[in-house]
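Can anyone check this?
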Amino acid sequence: MARTAVPFFTTDVTASPAGAGETVIATLHGCTVSYPSDRFVIEGFANITLDANVTAIVLAVRRTDISGTLVSDPAVTPKAAGDFTGATFQVVCSDAPGDVAGLTYVLTATLTAAGGASTVNDVALIASLTS
């Protein structure tokens, strides 16, 4: 029989990128597995108004904090001609953390060639258990 679990999620913006470099934009606390073999499917969404100089944005999911283990393959979105004002970006990955309780995941954004601040308008970070 399949188990169903309520996903862990947050819609709170941790910070907006002040320039180039990796910034934590969402933090999800308290992710706990039911069984050591469980996996999380993690989805991160961010609606960001980018600085005009940005040439690419990379979203990634890490464990714990900005220096934690990279869980996702970085989702790179090059900036083509036109304005990314209010564009939504996404990263999806899975993680098998083992027998853990209270694990933290963070969603990060790395901006290439940013000349100034960008604004995270909305964010969602969701971790759903699968067996």
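Reply from J.R.: I decoded it. DSSP finds no helices and eight strands in the chain.
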